[in-house]
């Protein structure tokens, strides 16, 4: 208990000194202390099948969010830094992911709505819902429903090479070319 109180007092003093002086080395100490928040947020993101984001990129943007949170945190507001920082870190990462995602948010939202409606209808009907039932539940015409499905379909790119390779090799760093044999080529073992 005494150690926890000393640590809390040390961090509080660190905050007060940093806010007063804006000293970079004090800020870096705060960053070191709160880096666990970035790890916590990054590890909560589900693994994605898209090669657009990797763990290190998410961590890097999370660190930018942490730096921003440290610079903008107001001690006088009475809000715990952790609460404030988690929101800033997650927001920075999501902004980064949205910049890389070429699909408009409206399309993503429509896909989510359709998925929820389909699940609800299938639960009620105990069978797959028809297009007419789904469009009716959404409050749109069957034509609008199909147009939306088409937009969603165009937005969902499957990284086929990556999916095939992961299923074949269980490794993420191979290319399809690595698995195609040269039927006219010589066996490399003959040169040994």
Can you give a write-up of this model?
This protein has 8 helices and no strands. By secondary structure, the protein is mainly α. It has 2 domains: 2-100, Orthogonal Bundle (Rna Polymerase Sigma Factor, Chain: A), CATH 1.10.1740.10; 104-178, Butyryl-CoA Dehydrogenase, subunit A, domain 3 (Up-down Bundle).
Task: Label the overall shape.
Answer: flat
Helix-strand category: mainly alpha
CATH class of the largest domain: Mainly Alpha
- Enumerate the spans where pLDDT stays under 50 for 5 or more consecutive residues: none
| Total domains | 2
CATH architecture of the largest domain: Orthogonal Bundle
Between the first and last Cα atoms, what is the distance in angstroms? 67 Å
Quantity of strands, as a count: 0
Order of helices and strands: HHHHHHHH
Helix content: 55-70%
How would you characterize the largest beta sheet?
A: none
């Amino acid at each position: 208990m005494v150690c926890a109180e000393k640590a809390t007092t040390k961090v509080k003093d660190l905050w007060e000194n940093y806010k007063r002086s804006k000293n970079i080395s004090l800020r870096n100490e705060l960053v070191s202390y709160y880096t666990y928040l970035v790890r916590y947020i990054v590890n909560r993101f589900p693994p994605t099948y898209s090669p657009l984001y990797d763990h290190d990129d998410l961590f890097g943007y999370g660190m930018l969010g942490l730096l921003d949170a440290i610079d903008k945190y107001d001690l006088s507001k009475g809000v715990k830094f952790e609460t404030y920082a988690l929101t800033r870190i997650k927001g920075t990462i999501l902004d980064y992911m949205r910049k890389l995602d070429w699909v408009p948010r409206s399309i993503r939202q429509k896909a989510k709505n359709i998925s929820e409606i389909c699940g609800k209808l299938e639960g009620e009907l105990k069978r797959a819902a028809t297009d007419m039932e789904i469009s009716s539940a959404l409050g749109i015409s069957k034509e609008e429903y199909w147009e939306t499905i088409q937009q969603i379909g165009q937005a969902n790119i499957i990284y086929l090479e990556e999916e095939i390779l992961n299923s074949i090799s269980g490794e993420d760093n191979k290319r399809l070319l690595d698995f195609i044999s040269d039927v006219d080529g010589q066996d490399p073992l003959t040169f040994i």
